[in-house]
Write a structure and sequence with these properties.
By secondary structure, the chain is of the alpha/beta class. The chain is built from eleven helices and eleven strands. Helices cover 39% and strands 16% of the residues. It is globular, with a radius of gyration of 20 Å. The mean pLDDT is 95. The structure holds manganese (II) ion (MN). The site of manganese (II) ion (MN) has 6 residues, from loops.
Length: 329
Amino acid sequence: MRLNIQQTAALLGEKDNILILTHERPDGDTLGSAFALCRALQLSGKKARVMCQDKIPPSYSFLYSEIEMQDFEPEYIVAVDVADLKLLGSEFKEKYEGKINLCIDHHASNTDYAENLMLEDAAAAAEVVLQLVIAMGITPDRVIAEGVYTGLSTDTGCFRYSNTTSRTLRMAADMIDVGISVNKINQRMFETKTKSYAALERMALKTIKLYCDDRCAVMEISRKMYAKSGADESECHTLSSIPRQIEGVLVGVTIKETKSGTYSISVRTHEPIDASAICMKMGGGGHKRAAGCSLQGSLLSVRNTILEHVKQALDEVVNTLVEEPDYLS
Ligand SMILES: [Mn+2]
């Protein structure tokens, strides 16, 4: 069932001992939103804690350094920024399938696996969480504000992507008014690379190839490259935005080989290509301009499958592109 902000706030008001789950390979939005909600629940006198199947990268430690890790038997389980149960990760999916009570999300592709507070036009789950926190009667403190700002900024590429709205910026401004250090967060999130990540990025850049009349760029990251660079998968979210940056490219694809040998695909698009529609055809989902899916098989067959769907999507809009000279390189 779909809930609105007020219904969800009232519902949470009745609950206690709340476990908040993030998606696997956690990013700034799932973590910022989860810890902001956790803090708000704790401030309202409830017990709450956050759990993630994967290790939380050290760069996000500021999000929880002031939050108490409370120990309790969970009575109510909330997933944040998790569009599909399988995005919890295989271990957590098995553990929590059928046990999640509430989902707070902003992905149009959400599979409604629990009672659902879903705002499709929100740039980040953090936008939903902030409205919820306020509806719960909690005034955001610095810890909540840092979580919300981190979610807003990371899901919008530091307010550059097309999902950024005036509301996103107003919410960010409100968080700054609480007294957070924007520079500290931005520097951590956008202006710092580990040496191992920088090494991986160099290798990844070399793999970029153009397809479909140079409208699609594909970048490939192998296990060998992780091993050689020493980079961790968890620090590699921002790689996916690189292929789309090439002039004339409408679809940027990043193919990452996972530990289990399957391939994790990230698709980033420019208007008018719908990344979510492309990924849904391959069993995944996401947003209009940023989506993902998983594929099995050889790298060659995986790449061909993706290119087939990308070509179809490009063919569907090719006539509209002619009228848009900006898209012609
Ligand atoms: Mn998100």
